[in-house]
Amino acid sequence: MLQATVARRRDAFRLDVAVTAAAGATLVVVGESGAGKTTLLRLLAGLDRPDSGRIVVGDRTYFDAAAGVEVPAWERDVGYVAQDYALFPHLTVRENVAFGLRAQGMPRRAAQPRLDAALEGLDLAPFALRRPSELSGGQQQRVALARALVTEPRLLLLDEPLSALDLGTRQAVRGELRALLARLVCATVLVTHHPLDAMVFGDAIAVIEHGTLTQVGVRDELLRHPRSPYVAALLGVNLLRGTVLRREAGVAQVRTADGALVVADPGVEGEVFVTVNPQEITLSLEPPAGSAQNVFRGAVIEVVPEPPAGDRVRVVLGTRPPLVAEVTSHAVAALGLRPGSEIYASFKATGVKAYQ
Amino acid sequence: MRGRSLGALAWRIFVLAAVGGWLAFLGLPLVSLLVRVPPRELWARLLAPASLAALRLSFVTSVLATFAVIVLGLPAAYVLATKRFPGKRVLEALVELPMVLPPTVAGVGLLLAFGRAGLAGRALGALGLSIPFTTLAVVLAQVFVASPFFVSAATAGLRAVDARYADAAATLRATPGYTFRRVLLPLALPSVVAGAAMSWARALGEFGATIMFAGNLPGKTQTLPLAVYIGLQTDLQSAVALSVILLILSFTILLGLRFAHRLPRTPWVPRVAGDGR
Q1: Interface pTM, i.e. ipTM
Q2: DSSP string spanning B49-66?
């Protein structure tokens, strides 16, 4: 169980966050690079000192500015896997994994069983005598995990665990890591800039922007109700802010800064968030004849293929309000879409969600 | 175009001539030493008792001095490489000072410090100890002039070790001392060894501070360079023979350092500083 409130200012950058993670659960902190993710992990690990705040793991207080408590990094039960793993290049895999046990003064012989278990547990036994430079990226990551976990930390910190891997391995390792995290009894904090990783790993997800947490919640909560344009962009949905004008017959009119929308009745009045799933948006060259209540005309700004699926394409539209649609590559070809094409974007009121 | 290629040609000729002249200037004295005494004669001179005594003394004192430099210099290098504190630049300059200070000045300083009336000398005198003009004085003079070569190289080597390794060690329960022994030192080892070798070479060649502080007592304080100096006035052949030995030793150390980094035992030697992060 981790409970931490930390603040640290360096030059113009200020980090000020409160995070909690239950034992056995994973908190994913997701945000752009430079948002303060690595700084947060370094503060929790004890590699940097917060200006103020408190860090408690289980029944131990590692840092408490008010009480003058500061436990050095090497006395904290915290495992830390850096972005590029930082495996000791002069030691073999086995010596790397043994490092934490030996550093605590455990004799070689006594460390043996735990060492073997750690190597076995991450399928590293065949590589035990190799040096890190002789391993693939995925194997290096497993060594870093084994090295951090062999000391049985109460808090595990993972900094962008997949970013050092090439695309091919990333998919496989993502699955392995997810299974491993599910087995762990310690609390885990994982930071990533990748929304998909956040969705895959996070029991709880915290969104960090410019050093502060802008939204914290469970995965489904975030998916359903993003509260900032950043989170929406992260999840790939259109997010608008507006005011409910009229509610009747199961639908409502919402006025945004860039025009009005017809949405399914949110059941509330006043200021609301409105999300439009990009897949709900239909593109056409002529005004649509169907029952869609929301029709906008505008130019295509950009056509972006979605990398993993291949078949899906995101179309950024210069409509008012600005929208992003997701269509098949077949549709892009059929409509002859390219930047500058004039187009109609339409979607039904039921494809829009409004909430407070 | 014509003018440009003429200019380029002139530049090449100038560079070749300058480098050639410089090499000739460096090489001529060395070659002169080597051809002066025939090999058989050289061997006989070296095995003469006086030469052997100087050789033995130089070897023993320079090795002792190098060990002392390592023991005293490693903590200093660690502090300079990893800590930040006010006055650090002053300390850095101080550490390197013996590199440029005339050795005779160092000798006078040592004499004033450890002489009978000196600051440390008086305290030692009270204990019945006198350092000047002893073999210990030879070692102290060598430590004084040789230490910067080691401390500079070791500091640079320790500083070049990526901080993320020390960070990783700290999160793996390693105290700073354990991290130094098991991570920093092994990773900086090539630089540390190079620094020690340079230090040894410098101690071996030490003359000025030694003659001021330790005198020129055969078998006790007369090291190889001092024997060369004396020999020049009494027995030129012996002086040349000892000079050749010093020349070969120094050149071997420098050449060895240039090949050492290719040793297969050190695959982790950082080839470039930083890793593009």
Answers
A1: 0.79
A2: HHHHHHHHHHHHHHHHHH
